[in-house]
Amino acid sequence: GAAAAATLRKGFLAIRKAGHLCVQTVAQPYTDYSGREKVMEVRTDAISPGLRILLVDQWVETGGTMRAAIELVERLGGVVAGVAAICMENSEGGKWIQEHYKCSHCVPPHLQPRFDQHQ
């Protein structure tokens, strides 16, 4: 995320697991790829209404973490301009994200089934 922001000459905002930010935050519960309930948070003062945000993650497996990030951004009035990841699996959650937002990932279509099956 930080490297992408620097390359694009844009700001960087961390959306983190609860307890890692030392400022006032807003939280969003979610279920991660392993089925565990977790909480994600973001600074309350960092997203102004209408601010366009590119969400970046290494891997979107079930989509739970990314959907929590999307919900945080939108709850604070931000606009999700797109979602980028190294790999976005064709799970139910991954498909939902791809149907509702502009998405980009690095996996060629002919290799996607191997990533979906974790080969």
From TrEMBL:
Tell me, in one coarse class, where this protein mainly resides.
Answer: cytoplasm
Q: Which residues form the Phosphoribosyltransferase domain?
A: 12-106
UniProt keyword Zinc present = no
Per the UniProt record, one Pfam family is Pribosyltran
The EC designation for this entry is 2.4.2.7
* Catalytic activity annotation: AMP + diphosphate = 5-phospho-alpha-D-ribose 1-diphosphate + adenine
According to its UniProt record, this protein's enzyme class is transferase
Biological process, per Gene Ontology: purine ribonucleoside salvage
Which pathway does this polypeptide act in? Purine metabolism; AMP biosynthesis via salvage pathway; AMP from adenine: step 1/1
By its UniProt entry, which InterPro entries does this protein fall under? Adenine_PRTase, PRTase-like, PRTase_dom
Q: Where in the cell is it found?
A: Cytoplasm
Which key words tag this protein in UniProt? Cytoplasm, Glycosyltransferase, Purine salvage, Transferase
Gene Ontology cellular-component terms listed: cytoplasm
Similarity section:
Belongs to the purine/pyrimidine phosphoribosyltransferase family.
Quaternary structure, from the entry: Homodimer.
Question: What is the name listed in the Swiss-Prot or TrEMBL entry for this protein?
Answer: adenine phosphoribosyltransferase
Source species: Leiothrix lutea (Red-billed leiothrix)
